[in-house]
Amino acid sequence: MDATTDKDPLVQEQIYNALCYLGESEPEEILNSCDEYLRQHDKLAYPHRVIILKAMETVVKNNIALLDKSTAKEVIRDWQQAASNVLVAVGQRFINKVMEEALTKFQPGILPHYFVMQTFANLSVSNGE
């Protein structure tokens, strides 16, 4: 997964495709490996983090019926936290765009998801002066 930091988009795409391919035969192993890698590399730049998150999303979507309930719950929570962290990182430079996109998650009469609220809170803290 260290190759995700390669600047060549073709290499990044190959890493994404390899993770997805491996995820077809061993979805829980790949999801756990990606999760562990992201935890160990918490300073990984967001473009590279996104590659891994997208692969995790694809593996979950393609194998949701095969995942153990506890694994799925844990992965979804971790994935949502990582995605929130990516938005906060991007928001340090492009706050208006991130806020515009995040506000689309608010629907009248429906409580917003926990991670949407957490993202707003973290955006305000990281951009406070």
From TrEMBL:
It comes from the Eukaryota. GO terms for cellular component: cytoplasm. Pfam families: HEAT_MROH2B_1st. Residues 19-127 form the MROH2B-like N-terminal HEAT-repeats domain. InterPro entries: Maestro_heat-like_prot, MROH2B-like_N_HEAT. This is MROH1 protein. It comes from Oceanodroma tethys. The lineage of its organism: Eukaryota, Metazoa, Chordata, Craniata, Vertebrata.
